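Translate structure to sequence.
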C-alpha cells in the first residue's frame, strides 16, 4: 500500500523511532511561524473539520500496524496543526482500542487547547508536546504570525487548563529565534508563563533546517545554554543519533526519501539515520530524484539540505 497519511518511521530528536500520522493537508495551520520547516501557511484557519477522511487513516494504520513494527511512538504531526482535524479524538480511541501496546504522542502548537472539546479528545494520549515560543502579544505576532482570531494569553490559558486536566506527560517546547524571543523582557514573560503552566519538561530548540523566512538564523549554543539556565527546568534538544534499523514503508527507497522531503528538508545524515543505509547508497537514490527534477539542494552554513523543488510542486 502507498501511504498518504502516514510517514516514516522517522528518527526523532525527541521521540526516538516515531510513526507519523498526518491528518491535515499541507499547509493548513492556525499559525504561519517564521521557522516552520513545512513552509509558509497557505490556509491559516481556526476551523475544525474532517480535513482527511478517517476511513482512509484507519485503513493505512491497520495495514502498517498489523505487521507489529517496532516503534517508540505513533505521533500526530506533519503538514499542519493536528488538532484542527475534528476527528483526532476518534483516531486516538481507534488506536487505544485496537493497538493498545503502542504509545501515542501529539505535537501541537497549543493554539486550540483553550477549547474544552479539544482537551477532552486528546486526554488519552500518552505524551503531549505543545509549543510556546512567546508570552507577549507583540512577540507572538512577530514570531508565530497567528490567525487574527488568536491571542497569546488564550494560548497560555489553554496550556494551564491542559495541565490541570491531563494526567500524562507534557514536554513543552520553545523555539529560540534570535532577536525576537531571546530578549530579557521576553524571557521574563516566558519564565512567568512556565511557572503557571508547570510542564513536566521544557525543551529548547532553534533553527535546524531551512525555515519559512530565509533571514532567520539559529541561536548559538552559548545563548541556548544561558536561556536554559534562566528558565530553570529546561534542556536543549540534541540532534537524534541513529538507532536500530527502521523498516521501510515502501519497496522504493527513492519513494520514501521523496515522501519524507515533502514534509521537511533533510541532510544526507538525516536520511542515513532514517533509512539506516550507507551514505553512498542514499546518494544513488538522491541522484535519481535530482535527475528527475523532483528535488533540489539548499546549501547553508549548517549543511546542505535536500528539499522538494518548488517548480515540481510536490508531485510524485
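Result:
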Amino acid at each position: 500500500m502507498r501511504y498518504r497519511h502516514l510517514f516514516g518511521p522517522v528518527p526523532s530528536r525527541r521521540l526516538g523511532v516515531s510513526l507519523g500520522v498526518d491528518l491535515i493537508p499541507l499547509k493548513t495551520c492556525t499559525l504561519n511561524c517564521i521557522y516552520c520547516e513545512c513552509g509558509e501557511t497557505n490556509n491559516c484557519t481556526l476551523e475544525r473539520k474532517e480535513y482527511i477522511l478517517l476511513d482512509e487513516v484507519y485503513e493505512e494504520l491497520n495495514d502498517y500496524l498489523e505487521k507489529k513494527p517496532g516503534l517508540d511512538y505513533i505521533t500526530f504531526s506533519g503538514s499542519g496543526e493536528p488538532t484542527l482535524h475534528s476527528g483526532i479524538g476518534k483516531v486516538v480511541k481507534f488506536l487505544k482500542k485496537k493497538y493498545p501496546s503502542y504509545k501515542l504522542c501529539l505535537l501541537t502548537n497549543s493554539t486550540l487547547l483553550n477549547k474544552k472539546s479539544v482537551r477532552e479528545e486528546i486526554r488519552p494520549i500518552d505524551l503531549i508536546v505543545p509549543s510556546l515560543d512567546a508570552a507577549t502579544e507583540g512577540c507572538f505576532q512577530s514570531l508565530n504570525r497567528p490567525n487574527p482570531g488568536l491571542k497569546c494569553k488564550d494560548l497560555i490559558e489553554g496550556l494551564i487548563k491542559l495541565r490541570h486536566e491531563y494526567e500524562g506527560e507534557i514536554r513543552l517546547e520553545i523555539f529560540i529565534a534570535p532577536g525576537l524571543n531571546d530578549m530579557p523582557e521576553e524571557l521574563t514573560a516566558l519564565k512567568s508563563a512556565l511557572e503557571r503552566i508547570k510542564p513536566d519538561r521544557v525543551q529548547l530548540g532553534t533553527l535546524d533546517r531551512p525555515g519559512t523566512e530565509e533571514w532567520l538564523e539559529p541561536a548559538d549554543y552559548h545563548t541556548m545554554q544561558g536561556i536554559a539556565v534562566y528558565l530553570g527546568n529546561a534542556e536543549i534538544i540534541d540532534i537524534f543519533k541513529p538507532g536500530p534499523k527502521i523498516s521501510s514503508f515502501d519497496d522504493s527507497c527513492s519513494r520514501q526519501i521523496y515522501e519524507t522531503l515533502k514534509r521537511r528538508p533533510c541532510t544526507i545524515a538525516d536520511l542515513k539515520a532514517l533509512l539506516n543505509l550507507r551514505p553512498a547508497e542514499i546518494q544513488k537514490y538522491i541522484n535519481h530524484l535530482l535527475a528527475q527534477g523532483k528535488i533540489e539542494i539548499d546549501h547553508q552554513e549548517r549543511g546542505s539540505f535536500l528539499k522538494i523543488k518548488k517548480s515540481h510542486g510536490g508531485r510524485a
